[in-house]
Amino acid sequence: MMPRISARSFFTIVVAGAAACSDSAAPVGRVTESLLTRDVAIDAADATVQDLAQIAGIELMAGMPLASSSTSAASPFAGCTYNPSSLLIGCPSVTTPDGLTLNRFFEIFAADTMQRTYDAVATDSLLSSTWLTGTLAKSDRTVWLSHSRLMMVTGLTGSETKRTWRGFGTRDDSAHINKDGVVRTTRVISTDEIHDLVYRVPRADFPFPQSGTVTNEVTVSSTTPNGTEATNRQGTRHVVITFDGTQTASVLVGETQCALDLVSRKLTCE
Q: If phi over 0 gives left and psi between -120 and 50 gives alpha, with beta otherwise, what is residue 205?
């Protein structure tokens, strides 16, 4: 089964910052292949940071141990409602630290039996479904995003030493960008998959995934005014984001290698 996502971020993973890759050779007024790659890289990096923030928030909200394997939230899913008909836990919409709107539902399991709430001993997995929408305004771009996610965390039974997250989802993001002398409107449509993101416990000591990847299959289009006409460019990109337990994740967009700082959100590309 796969999930929906939710909850406000609690780690510095969601610290605001601007992503940037270098592309000094881009001609004024035209979208090049490298600019298209840059826009995809920035969008994928931002989406991944949002995903990690949601994962952290879900763990905190559910009451999973954070500081140690024996401590958890006093009131799991505070403000949420359990529906005995659907067996879902529904939570009210929240506004994230980035000013986005987050909607979420949860299912909790113990030995394939659904539960009303998280139990540190019995719960073995949790499924979350989330929708993230809204506008992000940055110095060089305004982004209108729409993300859906279905994610599951496993390995929760008893005195755990690690948790594993898997999931998939879609993105439909549009942006108005004014950078490098090229004013452009870009749309990114992506199918995303979260592969075995492993977190060590206690999570407070190990805030970043120890291993795993996030992959994006992206269709991108960009339009820029060029005199009385518009210059259009379209393409596809395969994005792989790889984690190794450190603050820096590797981002590979086609053959372009980048590095993402998970705290500052700064993206640097070769």
A: alpha
Rounded-to-integer distance, Cα 239 and Cα 51, Å:
15
User: pTM to 2 decimals?
Assistant: 0.84
How crowded is the C-beta side of 203, counted as CA atoms within 13 Å? Answer: 27
Token pair of 90, please? 């529904």
Reported confidence tier of residue 67, pLDDT bands at 50, 70, 90: low
Q: Does residue 66 carry a pLDDT above 60?
A: yes
Cα separation, 84 vs 71, whole angstroms: 28
Report the distance separating Cα 122 and Cα 135, nearest Å.
39
Task: Compute the distance between CA of residue 71 and CA of residue 207 in angstroms, rounded to an integer.
Answer: 16
DSSP state of 26: P
The sign one gets for the Cα dihedral 116, 120, 121, 126 is: positive
